[in-house]
């Protein structure tokens, strides 16, 4: 299978935009996956998903590197979150064929709308407050939720970054910027877990995936610097925007 120059240019541009969006708040897959399937309608959906995952993990990892160089991240938390995220995401990817996306979409739409309403009505959310519970309880809750979100990322995916930011902000005593940095590292882990499953099943178009990975990294680097420059206010607005966009996108898929 080969691509023309025009098709390649469209996909490379889309991958760069997706990398920027993903670095700022998450949801780059909403751009790149439909674009891959539109440019190459003959491509199997599993191959499109797997090829996008290769590009996404590259961009997310590069954004994680840039953000964690500027924002302090608790390394002890990563020692727990990273293996949990990789394992649960891999299990989710294996279970993807068992749970219909038509079942998942309404649940995700409701959760996103709830999250958006909560952030909109609570202006101080994202300023560093945390769940009113003992530290040990908050740590356990966070690990459980990271595992659930990672499983969801493997099985379906849209909104993973947003949900992780909400958990790290609401359960741990972190502001949006610190949560965004931690999210990128954990989201890289969820992508790796799912990517391993795709590699084992031979579903990646490597030539295209590596080309898109380069463009995704470029967009992600720009997005990471946008986050560092805009701070918590930018992330708050980006989160609310993504809630609306993703809810409309998933609703159109479900009922359109």
UniProtKB/TrEMBL annotation:
Q: Which UniProt keywords apply?
A: Cell membrane, Membrane, Transmembrane, Transmembrane helix, Transport
Q: Name one Pfam family in it.
A: TauE
Q: How does it sit in the membrane?
A: Multi-pass membrane protein
Where it sits in the cell: the answer is: Cell membrane
Which ranges does the record mark as transmembrane? 78-100, 106-125, 137-156, 234-251
From which domain of life does this come?
Bacteria
**Mind telling me which GO cellular component terms the entry cites?**
plasma membrane
Identify its protein family. Answer: Belongs to the 4-toluene sulfonate uptake permease (TSUP) (TC 2.A.102) family.
Query: Which PANTHER family does the UniProt record give?
Result: MEMBRANE TRANSPORTER PROTEIN YFCA-RELATED (PTHR30269:SF0), TRANSMEMBRANE PROTEIN YFCA (PTHR30269)
**Name assigned to this protein:** Probable membrane transporter protein
Q: What organism is listed for this UniProt entry?
A: Corynebacterium epidermidicanis
User: Where is the organism placed in the taxonomic lineage, from the top?
Assistant: Bacteria, Bacillati, Actinomycetota, Actinomycetes, Mycobacteriales
């Amino acid at each position: 299978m080969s691509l023309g120059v025009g098709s390649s240019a469209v996909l490379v541009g889309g991958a760069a935009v997706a990398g920027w969006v993903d670095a700022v708040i998450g949801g780059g897959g909403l751009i790149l996956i439909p674009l891959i399937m539109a440019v190459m309608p003959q491509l199997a959906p599993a191959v499109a998903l797997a090829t996008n995952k290769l590009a996404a993990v590259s961009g997310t990892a590069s954004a994680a590197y840039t953000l964690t160089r500027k924002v302090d991240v608790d390394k002890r938390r990563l020692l727990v979150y990273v293996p949990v995220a990789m394992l649960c995401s891999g299990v989710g990817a294996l279970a993807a064929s068992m749970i219909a996306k038509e079942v998942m979409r309404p649940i995700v739409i409701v959760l996103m709308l709830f999250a958006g309403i909560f952030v909109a009505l609570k202006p101080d959310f994202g300023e560093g407050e945390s769940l009113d519970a003992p530290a040990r309880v908050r740590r356990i809750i966070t690990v459980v939720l990271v595992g659930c979100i990672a499983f969801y990322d493997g099985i379906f995916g849209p909104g993973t970054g947003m949900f992780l930011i909400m958990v790290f902000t609401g359960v741990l005593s972190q502001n949006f910027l610190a949560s965004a940095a931690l999210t990128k590292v954990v989201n890289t882990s969820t992508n790796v877990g799912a990517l391993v499953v795709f590699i084992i099943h031979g579903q990646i178009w490597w030539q295209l995936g590596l080309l898109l990975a380069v463009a995704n990294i470029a967009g992600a680097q720009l997005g990471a610097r946008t986050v560092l420059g805009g701070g918590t206010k930018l992330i708050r607005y980006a989160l609310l925007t993504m809630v609306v966009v993703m809810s409309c996108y998933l609703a159109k898929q479900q009922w359109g």
